[in-house]
Write a structure and sequence with these properties.
Blueprint (H helix, E strand, L loop, with lengths): L14 E5 L4 H12 L3 E6 L2 H10 L5 E5 L5 H15 L4 E4 L14 H30 L3 E8 L9 H20 L5 E8 L5 H6 L2 H7 L11 H12 L10 E4 L37
Parallel strand pairs: 1-2, 1-4, 2-3, 4-5, 5-6, 6-7
Helix pairs in contact: 1-8, 3-4, 4-5
Length: 285
């Protein structure tokens, strides 16, 4: 299926590696990149969802590879396999990640380490392997996109993931400075609430049903809305963008819920305004 937004062949000749490409935002990203002409390798821990993603891609442009990003030897093997098959890596999308909903006092040391290992260690291992084995030796540089979370003003029930994603965002900024000399551009996308299968089916029903009302735009994001931004960064339009954190969350990072709220509106739903005394004389001018 062609891209709904970009012209066919926009990214012809590029090779991308997308972690966590078997579902959700990773799958949407892989399919969008393939539709733009990219040869995409999707990796993850389970083969079946990766193969499903590959079966949905345009023209057999998607190769599934099983890889657990928490294990360095698997990461190195994955990167080497991509280089063996495709000869280059132009784009890395670090989408693999995960967390579980729990108040901070209920998170064990093991649970905290597990989330950090997947989100921080996994991102670092894959980023370092792609940079040092592909992008730097080639002399051509490349682009890396790290998918993190919004909001940034605190995410109760996700202390472990909040810590992990903050680490990834600062790592993004540091590497954008250090690796600029190699022509590597690295950015992060902080995703808000998106209507992925995981969110819609695995989180508490009352949370899912109320999620849209926490967003100023009044709806959940669509996975392709993340994919479009990643394709944009992969295109020449992203050549001067590095070290940025792009928040895509319908305004949730700035305000919890729609505005005006019931407390900030009149009976007709219009925003309240300050009452001002009438002037006795017109203002000058």
């Amino acid at each position: 299926m062609p891209s709904a937004l970009f012209r066919s062949g926009l990214l012809d000749g590029q090779v991308a590696l997308v972690t966590g490409g078997g579902s959700g935002l990773g799958r949407a990203t892989a399919l969008e990149l393939a539709a733009c002409g990219v040869r995409v390798v999707v990796c993850g821990r389970r083969s079946q969802p990766l193969e499903e993603t590959a079966s949905l891609s345009d023209g057999g442009r998607c190769l599934p590879l099983v890889c657990d990003v928490r294990h360095e030897e698997e990461v190195v093997g994955c990167v080497d396999r991509v280089l063996e098959e495709e000869g280059r890596i132009d784009l890395l999308v670090n989408n693999a990640g995960g967390q579980f909903l729990a108040p901070a006092e209920a998170i064990t040391a093991k649970g905290f380490r597990t989330v950090l290992r997947l989100n921080v260690d996994g991102t670092w291992l894959m980023t370092h392997a792609v940079a040092t084995r592909a992008m730097i030796p080639s002399g051509a540089g490349g682009k890396i996109v790290n998918v993190t979370l919004s909001p940034h003003n605190g995410l109760p029930g996700m202390a472990h993931s909040s810590a992990a994603r903050a680490a990834v965002e600062n790592l993004t900024r540091v590497l954008s400075i250090e690796w600029a000399r190699f022509g590597i551009r690295i950015n992060a996308i902080a995703a808000g609430q998106f209507a992925t299968e995981t969110f819609m089916t695995k989180y508490p029903r009352q949370m899912v049903e109320a999620a849209a009302e926490t967003v100023p735009l009044g709806r959940l994001g669509r996975p392709e809305e993340i994919a479009w931004h990643i394709a944009h960064l992969a295109s020449p339009a992203g050549d001067y963008v590095t070290g940025a954190v792009l928040t895509i969350d319908g305004g949730r990072d700035n305000w919890h819920g729609r505005w005006p709220s019931a407390a900030d509106a009149d009976a007709n739903g219009n925003p309240l305004m300050e009452a001002r005394a009438a002037r006795s004389t017109p203002p000058d001018g």
